[in-house]
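A further point concerns the way the authors explain their paired sequence and structure data. Since the whole study asks how a given chain folds, the encoding of that fold should be made plain. A single example would do more here than another paragraph of explanation. An entry of this sort, consisting of the sequence and the corresponding backbone structure tokens, reads as follows:

_____
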Amino acid sequence: MNKSIRIALAIVVAAGVLAWKHWHGAPDWPQAARGGFVVPPDATSFRAGQLDFRACELKQRNSAATTAAFCAPFRVPENWDAPQSSRKIDLRVALIASSAALAERDLVVLLAGGPGQSAIDVWPQTAGAFAPLLKHRHVLLLDQRGTGGSNALTCKRDPATDEGFDLDKINVYTRACLVATEQHADPRFYTTGMALRDLEALRLALGAPPLDLIGVSYGTRVAQQYMHRYPDAVRSVVLDSAVPNAQVLGSDFAVNLEVALQAQFALCTKTPTCAHAFGDPWANLNKLRDVLHAQPVEVSYRDPVAGAAKTMHLDDASLATLVRMYAYTPETSALLPLSIAQALRGDPAPLASQVQMLSTELEGLSDNAMQLSVLCSEDVDLLTTRPQDAGTLLGMRLSEAIKAQCAVWPHGTRSADFHAPLVSAKPVLILSGQFDPVTPPRYAEEIAKTLSNSRVLVASGQGHSVMGRGCFPKLVGRFVETLDARTLDAGCIAAFGPTPAFISFNGAAP
């Protein structure tokens, strides 16, 4: 399967007395009348509800650093509709203990994006955003079935299929992936709906505490679906870079990217130093796309991590993937006008290095086939090929690839109301970035229309996944504490703004 398509698919948290009682034979939390369970600073294990947690270390990718946590085994049926006869799968569960002597009873739950991300694996990168929440609450991490340590549906790519966009190669790759996956999993049961039942079973096993859901990107779909099916289990919800229930994943990828890029590049043309250096970055991008479409190039470059000399096949598909993923954050999108201009001047090595770096960063997600179980069961029958996308940077490649793979991949089921808008009076805070290339602010506004106790906050100049930026961690902490989004003092978001484009690889103009 073409690497650029694979990556793109990957795309689209009185104490002393109570503590003594808990550790010396008093009933486990959830029977406690007030407050949550106690985790003493020097604890190596504890019991919560029916689960036995033991101290563990969460690894950080490409680093020797680890994060202290508590892990517990949790087994569920692969098929919740036939639990007795179904294969059993082990889900990876971790808990990050609050710094409070007696934490609140409600648990914060991180619902990761993708589809395909592991909540536990991404925790080290997202932990800072949860610091205010950890002052009073524990954070529960569950790798959604099919991801991370929860019977992951992982299919290693064949490097020989990385060049060009070829539906036949995609078909061959998908069939091989299916054969490998079926050795340990039935892909029909790795859907959002089944994952919701896992989370509810885990909550009940912990004694049925109320949950504060923090969903990011695809995780916002999980949060909305869970709140719809288990409303009494939810105390509050934060949706970061939200996807409406009605949205068909993949349908707006091309147009959303175009709108975000044009808005970001327009800032360059309005800035004298940037305009002088690059002219019109949008025109430059389209010109480079046409050049690489007509004549892909073999690029010699240095691996940005290892420093080894390498070569890469660079074409319009890999360019589109790079640009899309770099548009996710203001820091990386600020590099695009410069890298595009360099390539047009005959030096595509910086672009090749960035493609390599992106591929390395997203390797685990792009090799995860759980996203196919989600897309093929929940979206593909509603996904239409739109001729108007043909002239866009992404074109129709993503929708064509999704359809080709879903022609092979087994389909699970979705509920009849799966794509209905969420209607609720629960407290909901929705965060969005002005230049988000995949879940734009209009999605947040659409979701809020049927949530009577919600508020949308848009960060100027920001992209995708914004909860960890600026004052958002503080605002989220206050919201979860007070359950009042409407009167939340959010004046601090006025400090957000765009990142100036790099004029050289040393940074923006002074």
The chain is about 35% helix and 15% strand. The two ends are 43 Å apart (CA to CA).
